[in-house]
Amino acid sequence: MDNSLKLQKRTPSFLEILRSYGTLIAGLLIVLCFCILQPDTFATLDNAITVSRQISFLVMIALGATLIMAVGEFDLSIGAMASLGGIFAAQLAVAGYPIWAAYLITLVVAFIIGFINGWIVTRFRVLSFITTLGMGTILGGFTFWLSDGATIFEGIPASFRYIGQEKLFNLPFLSFIMLILTLIFWYLMSQTTFGRKLYAIGGNEAAARASGIRIRLNKNMAFALCALLASLTGILMASRLGSAQPTGGDGLFLPAYAAVFLGMTTFKEGIPNIWGTFLGATILGILENGLTIMEVPPFLQNVITGLIVIAAVVLQKIGQSESR
Known about the structure:
Distance between the termini: 22 Å
Strand content: under 5%
Strand order of the largest sheet: 1-2
Main location: membrane
InterPro entries: ABC_transp_permease
Protein name: Ribose transport system permease protein
Order of helices and strands: HHHHHHHEEHHHHHHH
Subcellular location: Cell membrane
Pfam family, one: BPD_transp_2
Largest sheet: 2 strands, antiparallel
């Protein structure tokens, strides 16, 4: 009896603490370091607002990647989809379409393409990273053809730039959109039957099928929503910049999955989750912002970011091994 109580009250080991709270602790330490090193530029309200706008794109596209990873798949076309979304919406706006129509048409096209990705994966049992790698190549080629390989900036109406550049209560619209989408997809994944089905599929697809869950439909919807979020990210990037680049979304692909992996080390260990992804994207955004303020070269920023992601994942695995 006494032994069992002692086991129940066992003090968590150092590695177990790192596994559970390491990412959050690392994020706080990063903030503290930058506050000490650059107090006049980093530790300001204006910079905090800037960071919230900068991470908005990463958070949005990473939310889609979270859905895909929840069902145990990957979508390597999200960067190309973001690029296409920005180019396509900008061209529709230049052609005279109402802004709401330019946005809506682009998002519908992205949803359909994402659904096709899922259909190919589920119908023909093709590996998702191969399918989406091929689709991303197709989308990249189509984007270059659509834009002639050039940045679109002439003729873009001011109304197209409104959402990306305006503020509300001194906060960027983009920050509000990021928070609203995070809340929506947190609710979708944690409080609805659809979200529970996605987690069931990712946890054990055979068991999910045996319980009557429609695997194909739910996976297809996950891919479709992922593509829609990637396209929305590209549209809002173009709105923010007032121009659309044929490779504008390419730089978001790896950070998006890095954010998801970081998020898997917090809140729900080893499971993709919305608030974990939000935290992961925030840490990456703060890290990039602080290193830029310190004038650290971009290549070294990539090295540091990669090391942090690898360290977080390794520490989680070490903690899991020890707990067994």
